[in-house]
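From the pipeline queue, job 12 of 40. The input is one protein chain; the requested action is below.

Action: predict structure.
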Amino acid sequence: MYAVGVSRLHDYRNYDFIKHHMRYDWEKSVLYDRFGILNVFNPHRPSGTYRLDLTIHEERMVAKMLFDLARQEGLNNFSDMTFNNAAVEKLTTDFIRTNIKNEGIFIGHYQCPEDKIRTEFREQLG
């Protein structure tokens, strides 16, 4: 009996499974360095705290996906935000358009309430 094609099976909804079971931030850093944050990011489960260096292409793409999610599901889903070590009170489309370019460090926590989740939009991002 042969297991033909098993290596081609992908469970893209669970690529990020391991990151949700890590206790320490340094563990996530190692995971992101090894595999790339874009390979581990899952738009179906975006909840979490992010530190994104916008000079790095992959991290900038994750930031864009998170901001697109926030626009669809609610800008208030982001909390505890800083941009270049300055506190950000509230995420707005103006802030995203004017500040989020190819440089800077964005830190924030994304958490979406169950009733606001836009499954079809998350599927498109995935």
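Job complete. Residues 6-125 form one domain.
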